[in-house]
């Protein structure tokens, strides 16, 4: 049986954002999103972990070359998000609230089409050391 | 298809504990639990990661509001365990050995009933940087 | 001889900022500050370490109570900077470029007048895990 | 129903290695493995996380005693790899390219036969803080 | 001129403690020390960094052999404090409040007499990731 | 009075090395350097922190531009040491034992001549998370 191995590459980017629903009043936005809805934006050092799963090549011993994966993340994600205002400077969040949940799904979709379909992909995003998200999710036994 | 995202919140608490089986002799407790059975207790900075999985709300982009989740953990877990002696100050470990395995199951159960049943829940507990546990477990391909 | 001990308290805040000199052209700002001069702002998870040095009280064994120090930092610094745009939302950086160097000096001055003059004070600020600053500086033997 | 808990133990070792395929020219090795094919070797602080999953013993509350697991990892893995040249000093990598993927599979197999078959086993290996691998892989929902 | 280099060794221990002044009422202890005065103790994973400064030996290139220093810390500090109740199990804190400030001074004195007087010594102690102390203190320019 | 601020930049490199004194027998090298004298080398992920101290420029608010400092470290240090065997691939350690103490002094000297003499310089080098060194040393009150 072929042995699948997961490889992980960690990258980071710094960005500003603001959480709000444009159809809502300022008051309701403040109530739901608290300090995160500050109209002048705040920001984060986002840490990004990209997980790619597949069978290592029998000659090289690589699932994918991590420096190739790092370059891909740089080109597809960091070039668009690093040192940007997610709400104002990106088309992805022009009409989508840049919560961690929405950002991680967007990053997954940016990368999915660029990575060999035989390989599984999963993305974890740290907004702070204490708040983070993952997509798609691992199956868990819950009971 | 609805897209599930996992969100994580990290909290911590400091507590004293002692590992021992009351039916056993001191000698046998020392043999099985080593320094951890010291009768006068020792302690840890416990780091707790709570993972909640579900479909983000299409309006807010939140699976759950992390500040609400943080408050819930504070009320249900930290208020009972932080700066406490787990063996002497908590009803949960009055008759249950406070190993990391038992603590993580207890914390899961404290939180499970307070979180929407549509959401999956999983808890990781670090007793030290090098020793940690998780419940319920992820399914793994083994072999 | 009285024994001085240094105590440290770590806190964090999230903020947006932009580096630029208003008298300069956009081109010159871009040349000097690179991506950090993006007009729509970017952001960071700032980690702050406050160091206070003095002789522990012989009765309590405290230099200062760390929970009192934590509250002071919360009131004097975090309440003003957390989840804010440093350029737009603070009077301190309305006319001062919010480089890490300038931020750390400002934070020092915010705290200095609130802390007993018998105690020494020093502040370290992490803009990212790889870029950080300290003020005032430790004396170093150089050469 | 019996409740499975995962326990984790983190260990580390320092080793030298070189990535190359002996059938290939130096040029091709340099092209595929870059700096990692330097003929005189380079090295890493490898961090190793071993995950063991099973039902806690109802008396002790342990899945396995973590100090027993730590000793086992020390004897089976660290004694062979720590402060060694993986290519020259180990039989496992005499004819196998010591990529992180291959190392993690080898470590898994070293440990699998020594651990009770009722317990699941999984290994994560950090080559650097930014590059890491896991085997066997968690099942992920992908899509 | 001879070149002094500082070397650092990080160790850790787990212990229980309670902060209180025996001459004070429970109420006053609770007021000053808060949760830290819980009569049944709480605990921490203490991280300890020992800094030794001197001129490297011209033959070996060592200030001191770090594995010798690690053994010394193990014998003089960890053997006495690890997995202990500082108030009940140690003579050092039988009549001294085990604040981080007092612990760091005690550890310094335990080590000072065992280390070559030509070498400078300094100790940092982390009670949590956010609360830590250092003794003796670095000279700082203040103002 | 002019206000000096210290700025820090963290970088890393991976290298192999071996500790030994060529005039000594294998037995004596093994006795003094232990596993670190393994003839086939072992390796580390070295973390390097460069500290530069000076008065921030009143216009830019920079002591030095951290991206310029990062480029300088890359050119002067990483290009020579990253993914290298320190004993075999570098002229600096052809006849000097590559202990952490000797490496940190060498790195300091590589950088000192390239940095404005008005600025103070200090270097910290982590060989592992638990073993690290600093040069030149901070003055400490020791008594």
Briefly, what is this?
Chain A has 143 residues and is an alpha+beta fold.
Description of the molecule:
Six copies of one chain form a homohexamer. Chain A is an alpha+beta fold. Chain A has one domain: 6-pyruvoyl tetrahydropterin synthase/QueD (Tetrahydropterin Synthase, Chain A). Helix content of chain A is 29%, strand content 28%. Chain A is built from four helices and five strands; from the N terminus they run E-H-E-H-E-H-H-E-E. Chain A has helices spanning 26-33, 66-81, 86-89, 100-112, and strands at 5-17, 42-54, 84-85, 120-126, 131-135. A five-stranded mixed β-sheet of chain A has the order 3-1-2-4-5. Chains in contact: A-B, A-C, A-D, B-D, B-E, C-E, C-F, D-F, E-F. Strand 5 (131-135) of chain C pairs antiparallel with strand 1 (5-17) of chain F, so a sheet runs across the interface.
Features:
elongated, 5 strands, homohexamer, Tetrahydropterin Synthase, Chain A, alpha+beta, 5-stranded mixed beta sheet
What topology does this entry show?
6 copies of one chain form a homohexamer.
Chain A lengths: L4 E13 L8 H8 L8 E13 L11 H16 L2 E2 H4 L10 H13 L7 E7 L4 E5 L8
Parallel strand pairs in A: 1-3
Antiparallel strand pairs in A: 1-2, 2-4, 4-5
Number of strands of chain A: 5
Total DSSP helices of chain A: 4
- Could you tell me the strand content of chain A as a percent range? 25-35%
Q: Could you please say which CATH topology of chain A applies here?
A: Tetrahydropterin Synthase, Chain A
